[in-house]
Design brief:
By secondary structure, the chain is α/β, with parallel strands linked by helices. The chain contains 13 helices and 20 strands.
Amino acid sequence: MFHLTFHGGAGEIGGNKILLEYGGARTYLDFGQSFDFGKDYFLDWLKPGAANGLECYFEFGLLPKIPRLYSEKALEFTDLPYAEPDIDAVFISHHHSDHVGTLEFLDESIPIHMGHGTKAVLDAYSTLYPGLVDIGDHVALQTFKSGDRIKVKNLTFWPIHVEHSAPGAYGYIIEGPEGTIVYTGDFRRHGPMKAFTEEFIAEAAKAKPRVLLCEGTRMTPDPENHDTEEEVHDKILEIMKKARGLVLAEFSMCNIDRFNSFYRAAQETGRTMVVDTKYAYLLDRLNEIIPSVPDPRTNAGLKVYFKLAKTREFAETDYKKFEREYLDNRITFEEIRKNQKKFVMVTGFNKLMELVYIHPDEANYIYSQSEHYLEGEDNKDQHQVLENWLQHFGIHFHKAHCSGHAGRSDLEYTVSQIKPKTLIPIHTDHPEEFKKIHDDVRIVKKGETVTF
């Protein structure tokens, strides 16, 4: 019999930590951090102390206190004694923190499986943001590609790529002697890589699963907003065509589809895309595995922005070793300030200071992230500061975004095609909505174990 225990991802969006047990095999599907992690106890600079491992996490119930799972270092200051792990593997769907954010606490000997694209992004992020991104040291971390088969005792894990707002995202078909379980991970089917998701859905349907673990971020009772990535590109293109000055673009760093939408629109309007050294480093690491990603060293339509630093002369010694790799393709505020209508500059809240040097004239700011990050209750102060900067420089503000998650109609389509015997909604605030589209829906709670 299959046993599924939901240590995260049930009754919440994100935080997926699902234990799958069958015939002696014990595996996890993702091991992420909840979006509302510690909101009742921590704020701004009041955070759990990294040196204390899981002490604060256990104190406030932020991670489940499970024996034979965590590393000896993570348990050092807790009352949970260390013991050799009994987990056979952890399978990661993609690199977002709500799926990998607490990997660092797992015992180093537990095998971790992830797509090669996920590994490339996490490696780049850990170099660029060592204080923010840390998945820990895992002596048995293995990468796969779509279509590989991975045996764990009497289970076979079959990762198949899906389209998401992150590169290298996968769903899983998990085969056992008594049937099949399908885990969607996070996915969508309204972008340029829609065929990935269609392939996953088709293979999942052939598997005739006993259970479908289906994400439902956008399975809400509200009217559906179903913009596509192509529509986002078209809106960006229209703004660029009308723009008489610099175009500023804000979007999630790892959203390569969104980068491509801006990059394509820039090419179509005769503009040059400008990224900072960190983004250049990420593009560099993804260039070998994603054909659409331009080479930041040689691409004629892409320039790498170097900030004014110590010497104020853009000397090589002003920059870190990884930044120096892109000096031959650099651009500075001086060139942008002189020819503002020729450029599209990737920006963000923490890069606003560069506007002091560029001094934009008739600029346009295209905000292309989830409105939650701009308009959420926790971000009111940041929103006001951004608004103040835009008003100060007379910058026109626009929104152009679509979700990285499947909308309600696409979730309905997915379920109707796969036809599982039982459907378990995960990664959703509205699991009850799935009862409207399937006859056997099991709504689970955090910490609950179900058996099939």
